[in-house]
Amino acid sequence: MKQSKVIQLAQTALFAALCYAAFTFIQIKIPIPGGGSTSLHVGNAFCVLAALFLGGWRGGLAGAVGMAIGDLLDPVYVLSAPKTFVLKFCIGLITGLVAHKYAKINSSTDKAYVAKWVVISASCGLGFNVIFDPIAGYFYKQYVLGQPQQFAAVMAKWGAAATFVNAVVSVILVSLVYNVLAPVVKRAGFVDPSLGR
Asked: Which of 114, 105, 92, 101 is nearest to 170 (CA)?
């Protein structure tokens, strides 16, 4: 039986709040020479978890909204919110597509199969981010925000390193958390049974 729209909205809002909290409160800011900063955080892990539990569209939306709000409320990142919204939405879409449309992890009872595809789908979503976050950041800073090319290039390099570390940590965290929580969450009816069919 399909979940009601109210339950789906509440679940999406819950994951948006988790993404916001993980990004805002579990973060280490790294100042960059010449101004600006990047950060190490686990917000992307919750974006991926949202896609695994809710599907690509709703999970991507949760990650996009939660982390864009985190940017809007942080003076350092306030101008990056539109870029964040698009990139985090794409992380969720890609993760959900691989996990639910291709691997159909909700239909499998084989724990090893699910664990393998959780790692693969998380790696696909976060791999996209590792490649496109620095590229999008470079063009966004230079052409939208009008910052000098040298500054945009330095920010892209530092951002690429931080994004890679965030991705590795997030894949490990997601694989541990999802495989522990998924059976409980499914029994509780939190996951839409039609997801991935």
From this structure: 92
